[in-house]
Design a protein that fits this description.
InterPro entries: Acyl_CoA_acyltransferase, GNAT_dom. By secondary structure, this protein is an alpha+beta fold. It contains seven helices and eight strands. It folds into two domains: about 160 residues, Gcn5-related N-acetyltransferase (GNAT) (Aminopeptidase, 3-Layer(aba) Sandwich); about 30 residues, no CATH class. Strands 1, 2, 3, 4, 5, 6, 7 and 8 form an eight-stranded mixed sheet that branches. Strand 7 and strand 8 form a beta hairpin.
């Protein structure tokens, strides 16, 4: 495993990214945006078969991040949560937005979200040709792991170390915080507001 944590400062450095908004996909319209981006990048550009791109993991323990500029979807990635690591997958960025603020903001939010959940280890299965890009994002090849192949591409494994958020969620986190929408644990959610009402339902 790598010794240096992913440089979050780098991910948020460079020209202002105020025009880029990265958020968790929360409803069906958001997922349609996510799937449209992946269809553009993987199915259209890389000629990936439908059943291989939409692999049965989109609704099974996954979080989808969506990057937008002025409300227009431009990039997405999927996070799948395992016992002691998070897997970064399905990174799809429209051609005109590759590199720069969009990609860095997308990865920055992924790292922030994982750190807040208490994760310290991330992995990715990436096309070998993309290793330089992932290295810039703070992920390094696992040299003790063999290459493998699927969907007509050669793949390698990469990993990155995440600096755990000192206020990461835990069993000691207040109940109403754990009930808040994914990724928005620092802001009041709908159930916080309901807590001001007296309990009227039978126990």
């Amino acid at each position: 495993m790598t010794t240096a944590a992913i440089d979050v400062g780098f991910l948020y450095s460079g020209p202002p990214a105020n025009h880029v908004r990265v958020r968790v996909a929360r409803d069906l319209p958001d997922l349609m945006r996510v799937f449209a981006l992946r269809a553009i990048v993987y199915m259209a550009e890389q000629v990936c078969p439908y059943d291989e791109e939409f692999d049965g993991n989109d609704f099974a323990g996954a979080t989808h991040l969506l990057a937008e500029i002025d409300g227009e979807p431009v990039a997405t990635l999927r996070l799948r949560w395992f016992a002691d690591f998070v897997k970064v997958e399905r990174v799809a960025v429209k051609a005109e937005h590759r590199g720069g603020a969009v990609v860095k903001s997308l990865f920055g939010e992924a790292v922030r979200l994982a750190a807040k959940r208490g994760y310290t280890h991330a992995i990715g299965h990436i096309q070998a040709r993309l290793e330089p890009f992932w290295r810039r994002m703070g992920f390094f090849q696992r040299l003790d792991r063999a290459r493998f192949r699927f969907s007509d591409h050669d793949y390698i494994e990469v990993e990155g170390r995440i600096e755990r958020d000192p206020e990461a969620l835990s069993t000691e986190t207040p109940p109403l915080v754990l009930l808040r929408p994914e990724g928005c644990w620092d802001a009041e959610g709908p159930l916080d507001k309901s807590a001001s009402r007296a309990a009227t339902c039978p126990c």
